[in-house]
């Protein structure tokens, strides 16, 4: 969850979800648009670049206070029984998992929609609309939820 505000992310996500799951989908969009642009420029010599409309929608759910309290209680108890080195690691992970200043949330889904692609000429004029449809949903970020579940079992 580090870097949520500074990265201008839509919602808290685990580092794995942000850097792996979401990045994979964003890279797919980028690759498909780049290939489409190259193909359209080859087809139409006047074409110079494409533009497109995109939306990203995130659905999230707050982690309940009871779950948070349980996590803090179990991790603190584990830290008190651990060696000093292990204690530091347990407490650092707890802070990392729960975040520092924001209520912990987990992302339930992210929807990527890209469309209205247009080929533009050197003066910026629209030469032609280009068929392109990308509408994909990635599932929830279960990282924080899984961490909390393990602590409660």
Shape verdict: elongated
What is the percentage of strand-forming residues? 25-35%
What percent of residues adopt helix (DSSP H or I)? 40-55%
Q: N-to-C terminal Cα separation, in Å?
A: 23 Å
Element-level helix/strand string? HEHHEEEH
* Low-confidence region ranges: 1-5
Mean pLDDT: 81
Helical element count? Answer: 4
Total domain modules: 1
- Please give the largest β-sheet: 4 strands, antiparallel
What does this structure look like?
There is one protein chain. The chain has 153 residues and is of the alpha+beta class. The protein has one domain. Helix content is 46%, strand content 28%. It has four helices and four strands. Strands 1, 2, 3 and 4 form a four-stranded antiparallel sheet that branches. Helix 2 packs antiparallel against helix 3 and helix 2 crosses helix 4.
Topology:
Elements: H1 15-43, E1 47-62, H2 65-81, H3 84-98, E2 105-121, E3 126-130, E4 134-138, H4 143-152
Antiparallel strand pairs: 1-2, 2-3, 2-4
Helix pairs in contact: 2-3, 2-4
List its salient traits.
single chain; 153 residues; alpha+beta; four-stranded antiparallel β-sheet; 4 strands; elongated; disordered N terminus
